[in-house]
Recover the amino acids of this structure.
């Protein structure tokens, strides 16, 4: 706080507290004898008169106590300009103290599982429960409460991973985040080229397509797309480039959606959660996510990888 604002606050505080005290003392008079006509001159309904009497003494003393309390408060705590108070308290300091307290408790809880491998964590009921709780508070907005994701947000319960599905790769994705981008190719390919590459991409995963368009699209694909998706279309986990040959699609597999991705590109970002959660909590979440992908499939699962995506898959 600048010195100008500090003195402004001090002056305002003194005027408010001192003015309140002066007003109380100025209006503290002996009670008017009601036998005499000591009224304000205001009359309502013909015979209701307003007397000019002071506050009851208990009420007056209550106001005095609030002024005394405010003076003591301003001595002990911040509020009097730049003066920080004799106790040295601050909201920032209290926040840091409480954060340190809960961080110590969290470290104590995480220490139980520090010696476990990821496979052991995935099989440990308590470790999975703790990881699930952290996941629920930080990850469900994008990946869903069950981890199955949604359009544009990867499914964490299957075996299809954009950035690799080893525990260490999952941990890196959570801690450091993932940024992926598929450039827009609409201008380069033109409308016909987009249709042809779309047909070829659909052919890679066995979807219905025009054979002639796919044949033409293969040439264009090999000129532009193999750098990320590979000549066989199986993608590249180092780049987060999805496998185009399976039936797992992050944005959908219709001709319109695939053409849109090729034309406009795909951009996404999973923010780094290491600074938010801390190393121990990141490891717990990684263990939980790893446990999800180790479970046997349960029916149809939401799309998880094709199209440019960012997250752990």
């Amino acid at each position: 706080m600048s010195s100008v604002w500090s003195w402004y606050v001090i002056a305002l505080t003194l005027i408010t507290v001192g003015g309140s005290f002066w007003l109380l003392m100025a209006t503290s008079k002996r009670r008017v004898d009601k036998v005499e006509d000591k009224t304000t001159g205001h009359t309502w309904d013909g015979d209701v008169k307003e007397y000019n009497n002071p506050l009851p003494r208990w009420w007056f003393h209550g106001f005095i106590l609030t002024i005394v309390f405010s003076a003591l408060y301003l001595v002990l705590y911040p509020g009097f300009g730049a003066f920080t108070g004799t106790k040295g308290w601050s909201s920032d300091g209290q926040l840091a103290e409480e954060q340190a307290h809960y961080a110590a408790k969290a470290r104590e809880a995480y220490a139980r599982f520090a010696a476990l491998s990821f496979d052991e964590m995935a099989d440990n009921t308590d470790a999975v429960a703790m990881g699930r709780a952290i996941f629920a508070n930080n990850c469900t907005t994008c990946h869903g409460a069950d981890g199955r994701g949604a359009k544009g947000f990867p499914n964490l319960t299957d075996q299809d991973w954009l950035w690799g599905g080893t525990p260490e790769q999952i941990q890196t994705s959570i801690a450091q985040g993932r940024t992926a981008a598929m450039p827009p190719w609409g201008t380069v390919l033109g409308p016909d080229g987009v249709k042809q590459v779309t047909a070829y991409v659909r052919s890679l995963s066995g979807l219905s397509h025009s054979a002639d368009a796919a044949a033409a699209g293969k040439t264009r694909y090999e000129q532009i797309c193999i750098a990320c998706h590979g000549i066989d279309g199986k993608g590249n986990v180092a780049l987060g480039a999805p496998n185009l040959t399976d039936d797992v699609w992050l944005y959908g597999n219709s001709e319109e959606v695939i053409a849109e991705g090729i034309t406009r590109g795909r951009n996404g970002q999973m923010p780094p959660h290491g600074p938010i959660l801390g190393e121990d909590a990141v490891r717990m979440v990684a263990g939980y996510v790893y446990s999800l992908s180790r479970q046997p499939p349960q029916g149809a699962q939401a799309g998880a990888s094709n199209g440019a995506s960012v997250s752990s898959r």
In short: The radius of gyration is 35 Å. Confidence is low (pLDDT under 50) at residues 297-313. The chain has 13 helices and four strands. The longest helix spans residues 3-26.
